[in-house]
Amino acid sequence: MNIAEFKKLPILGIIRGINLSQLEPLVNCIMSSGLRFIEFTMNTKDAAVIIQKSAEISKNKLTIGAGTVLSMQDLKIALKSGASFIVSPCLIEDVARYCRKQKIPYFPGALTPSEIYKSWQQGATMIKVFPAKCFGPGYFKEIKGPFNEIQLLACGGINKDTIGQYFANGASAASFGSSIFKKDLLEKGDYGAIQSSIEELIAAYKAL
Known about the structure:
Elements: H1 3-8, E1 11-15, H2 20-33, E2 37-41, H3 47-58, E3 63-67, H4 72-80, E4 86-88, H5 93-102, E5 106-110, H6 113-121, E6 127-129, H7 137-144, E7 152-155, H8 163-168, E8 173-176, H9 183-188, H10 191-206
Parallel strand pairs: 1-2, 1-8, 2-3, 4-5, 5-6, 6-7, 7-8
Helix pairs in contact: 2-3, 2-10
């Protein structure tokens, strides 16, 4: 994962619970939307195959990571499948150590000041503040007060109406998931609606 490239459009899509039949049209609509960074969660059925096939479908035009990595076993499967960055809902210390040693971008989840600082000390690339919506954009401004060097990724409650508030208050990046990758849209194959929602989110960011 090229962090410099990510910072040009610091928006990450989180995809959970899809099936293989949905993969190709979903990847194509993501590429058409302009989004370039996505993660597939490891608790999705066939996650390893999905990560591998999504790289093939996108011809490596997407940067693909693995989310919900909770163990070294998850990490090894994810990396073998071609994941180029790793995301966890909380700090997994042995995963953090391995990623730091191998220079693999790692985004652990944290919420409290102590959790955020510990994750940063463990070498996290960015700290995924999760669930961000429980505290709102103002929380980021408070955290950045003492921790101005720490890079924060907002996760939870991100949409076209709120994304600007998170960046204005100190977020370095933002992620979204089921608010756009809606189960009902995926089930009825309405990939056009998904693409439009991603485009609106990107447009809202670029308007900042």
